[in-house]
Design a protein that fits this description.
Low-confidence stretches: none
Strand order of the largest sheet: 1-2
CATH topology of the largest domain: Pemi-like Protein 1, Chain: D
Mean pLDDT: 81
Number of helices: 3
Number of strands: 2
Shape: flat
Oligomer: single chain
Distance between the termini: 43 Å
Order of helices and strands: HEEHH
CATH architecture of the largest domain: Ribbon
Strand content: 15-25%
Number of domains: 2
Length: 84
Amino acid sequence: MKVRMGKRGVIVVPKAVRERLGLKEGMVLELEVKGDELVLRARDLWAELRARGEGPKFDVDMFERELDENEEKWLERRTENAWL
């Protein structure tokens, strides 16, 4: 599959590939150079964190919700102050 690189090196992962791999906005993708090839791997950091933090004292889902809420508040403030 071919993709075109845009300004500032931006590439778009085609929708069919995103759906097949379950890629979502905000996911971290790991880019590796092997010889003259680029290897792009999806990493689910929340799944990795959950695997590391299993136990009664560590509620990853709560942390994720809190981060999402704070991000929404930040985006609202940014939009409200866009004229500054």
